[in-house]
Amino acid sequence: MDYSLSALQSHDDRIQQVFDFVTGTVKCSKLIDVNSKNLNKPQTTKETLVKMVLNLTEVLCESRAQLKTAASRISELSADQLANQKKVIEMQDKLIEKQSEHVEAVKATVTSEIKSFSDVVKQSSVGKMSPKALQSTIITSIEKQDRDKSLMVFGLEERDDDIPEDLVTEVWTSICPSIPIMKECYRVGKKKEGADRPIRAVFNSREAAADVLSFSSELRQNRNYRDVYVNPDRTIEERSERRKLVALLKEKISSQPDKYHYIKNGTICTADKRPDRKKQNIFDFRD
User: Residue 216 has what DSSP assignment?
Assistant: First the structure.
């Protein structure tokens, strides 16, 4: 039997028609006022009473069918509700599990950061430092943690409609076995006519940044990216020191062209050239 809202409304109208017929016949305003006295009035003929009984019987049968349908539908809804509650509980369990994983990851990061701060404090003779100097040291440590997760990309042409993340992703694709996940990617500095601003790429971890940097030398072999350089994200002071090292490296290369010169761990190293060495006296002039 149809149990839609329109079907229920139609059934209610049908009941009201029967009620109106009964109250109208016995001349009373409410169905509850119908009694044996007003049913025995002369105007209430046998045929009228038979019609009342038939109408009421028909309405009762329809109402009974509606009640059975309602009971069945309620049972179905109860089953659906239980199933939905089960799904909600399962989703809550998964959410709690994910939250626990996130909490553990945050704890691990905090532990790592605290260890780094602890090392800084140990190396800095806290007893001799003012609160302001200690604060500056800790801030510097935090900034270094962030920079260790970042790389600077130079030499990518800048256009008004370019998307830095897409440009850098193409570079990573050309040199890396797998494309690393970046948290952020954006141009750095003020825009100048005729100059391409560098792009800063921020990764989820310092390991990811280190992996990409280890493959950056492959760009020299790629004709599309020979003029693109990938460097660590250095501070102003570090860039200044790097420029000095590059200048000294150029002098070394000029004065000792028969040797192989390179920068490693902040110092200039020199070694004998090997016939099989393809990359000799390579230095980064973008710093």
Answer: G
User: Into how many domains does the chain fold?
Assistant: 3
**Which residue is associated with the tokens 């990309």?**
153
pLDDT tens per residue across span 189-198? 888 888 899 9
Which domain CATH number covers 213?
3.30.70.330
Yes or no: say if 243 and 287 are a contact pair by the CB < 8 Å rule.
yes
Which run of H or of E encompasses 269?
strand 267-272
Parallel, antiparallel or unpaired: strands 150-154 and 229-232? antiparallel
Q: Which of 152, 170, 119 is nearest to 238 (CA)?
A: 152
Same-domain pairing of 246 and 175: no
Do residues 162 and 224 share a domain? yes
> ∠ at Cα 130 (125, 131), nearest 5°?
110
- DSSP state, residue 217: G
What's the one-letter identity of residue 42? P
Residue 234 carries which DSSP code?
-
Instruction: Give domain status of residue 114, yes or no.
Output: no
Does pTM surpass 0.85?
no
Cβ proximity of 39 and 94 under 8 Å: no
Integer angstrom CA distances of residue 53 from 12, 18, 23, 60, 67: 18, 10, 13, 10, 21
| Cβ-based neighbour number of residue 55 at 10 Å | 17
Rounded to 5, what percent of the chain is helix, strand, coil? 60, 10, 30
Give per-residue pLDDT as tens, 80-109.
888 888 888 888 877 887 777 766 765 665
The strand ranges marked E within 117-217 are 150-154, 182-187, 199-203
Last residue of a domain, one of 71, 90, 109: 90
Q: Which helix (H) or strand (E) holds 230?
A: strand 229-232
- Say which DSSP state 218 is in: G
